[in-house]
Amino acid sequence: MTAGAAERTPSLLETLPGRFYCDPAVFAQEQERIFETLWCCAVRAADLDRPGAFRTVQVGRENVLVVRTREGALRAFLNVCRHRGARVCAEESGTVRRTLQCPYHAWTYDLEGRLVAAPNLARMPDVDREERGLLRVALREWLGYAWVCLAEEPPSFEDTVVGAATERLGDPAAVERYRAAELALGRRISYDVRANWKLIVENFMECYHCATIHPELTHVLPEFAKGFAAQYYVGHGAEFARGAQGFTVDGGAGFGRLAGLADAQDRRYYAITVKPQVFVNLVPDHVIVHRMFPLAVDRTVVECDWLYAPEVVASGADVSRSVELFHRVNVQDFEACERTQPAMDSRAYRRGGVLVPSEHHIRAFHEWVLTCLKPHMSEV
Ligand code: FES
Ligand code: FE
């Protein structure tokens, strides 16, 4: 077959061109226009369980420090010392006693980010303590997570996070009934995926691949085997297979239904996506939250939390069979993404690939990305 356009049907939808998945210039624009502009889900609030507990995460090109204050609030700052720019907290997580002290020259900040001490500070009248505190980052809490936004003027959290996540659920209150903020962490797995973040989103958006690579998932959710479902947003609640007792790797029983769920939510799987980097899966006895952290054009760390009723975790119950189901799905999905990444700069993919009808909604994601980048497309 020639590469000519004669074979192309006018209605055929194509993906973004290959370079959108492998060109560092495109990635730099995405970091600035998407990850440094929108709300990103950064840290599970309960991980910071005492004053001074902190966690650092990469958001766009910035390293962000989230810390629990003495009053019990969460604050987020750019993890950059205002003296000469060293990272204040070099570790990914930890607990400080009262202050955050830069390891370079010992400038010291309180948990509200104020500069409170520095060697010889009294002899440096030009250094304005108020002015030289850590730079604050906007922070909101929802679903038990701290969401941060690097924009000077963050977009409405209610519209772009809560509203966008719930608008297509048959029942917009359905998410709240899982009371994710009150659940306990049963397992966390971090996946270092050698693929562009958009490949991961696109994979999650379609279920054309489910019959091929997800035998355990389609066993529990037969609807997904047909290939028409969209894995990323299942607002209607996909019904469990008749023989499945729970959302586990072998369809065996899980745990008791979470308190507060409506009968209609029993034996059903819901999935919601919050652009740009969060996927939430809701099943009767647990909630799975994925947070993506794109680190390079071809590398994305995905942190996945399995959350259960506090009494389930406190009892020491074995959660491994329910963790194993979505862990396998993750491994299967991420392997598929890693299999496509090396071809993104092939001449065979210069114009991109094809979106079959059950993937047409991915076009809306591409249009969203292009809209975010549009004013700056000439730079990429
Ligand atoms: Fe932080 Fe000097 S760079 S104290
Ligand atoms: Fe999948």
From TrEMBL:
Gene3D superfamilies: Naphthalene 1,2-dioxygenase Alpha Subunit, Chain A, domain 1, Rieske [2Fe-2S] iron-sulphur domain
Cofactor dependence: Fe cation
Domain Rieske: 41-148
EC number, UniProt record: 1.14.13.-
GO molecular function, one term: dioxygenase activity
Keywords: 2Fe-2S, Dioxygenase, Iron, Iron-sulfur, Metal-binding, Oxidoreductase
PANTHER family membership: CHOLINE MONOOXYGENASE, CHLOROPLASTIC
Designated name of the protein: Aromatic ring-hydroxylating dioxygenase subunit alpha
Species whose genome carries this gene: Streptomyces noboritoensis
